[in-house]
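quick one
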Amino acid sequence: MGDDPVMIRLDDGTVIPSILYYHRVAPGISPHVGVSPELFFRQMEFLKKIGLQGVSMEEGMKARDTRNTCIITFDDGYLDNYECAAPILEQFGFHATIFCVSSRLGKVTDWSADPLWGGVPLMDGGEIRELKGKGFEIGSHTRTHCDLGLLSREDPLQARREIFDSRTELEDLLGSEVTSFCYPYGSYTDESVQWVREAGYRNARSVRHARIGRIYDLFLLPCRPVSGKLSFIRFMGYAMMFKSGA
Ligand SMILES: [Zn+2]
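structure w/ zinc ion:
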């Protein structure tokens, strides 16, 4: 039924769990870019309390019990994901997908002039491998955090490389398949979505808000963004909505 209230229904009729979308988790962080470890703990605790299991994209795609499952994603691969978020997720027996920028591992963010977003440390290869070994999923967020909407028009070959080579680079590092992709800035063109399919990914997340009753493409999955600007009450509202399937 098209009007059956589920969060994410795909064009082939499949239903998948709802997706939370985070950036950073660190003490004293600006609410624009992330949440404090205390707030993140309370959020994960609430998911657990109402019976939602936090999983990676990869696990979520196979989930049978979509109303008791919640996909957790992080963009950019910040070092604080390793230091602050992962230990909390582990306490609750949760996993997540972290979308990494393959040519910037162990470096700092260099794609934003905004002091809130620029110069922030990113996880290195060892940290990424360690998280993968603990059941977290590493997805691709291109090689350089490029704007695929722009680049695929200006330099299609380079845009293709960002999509294809980031997968290969991460697979070489991890020694296993990389199947999830996320568009930097939520920016893409029809061509870039097609290249993501051709590169061998199995799903991709956008930054669009999930809307009830819509039908989604597996390569343009919607989500619910979480930053420090989202009140705990609204977070609880999201979680209850996921749980009810609405
Ligand atoms: Zn990003």
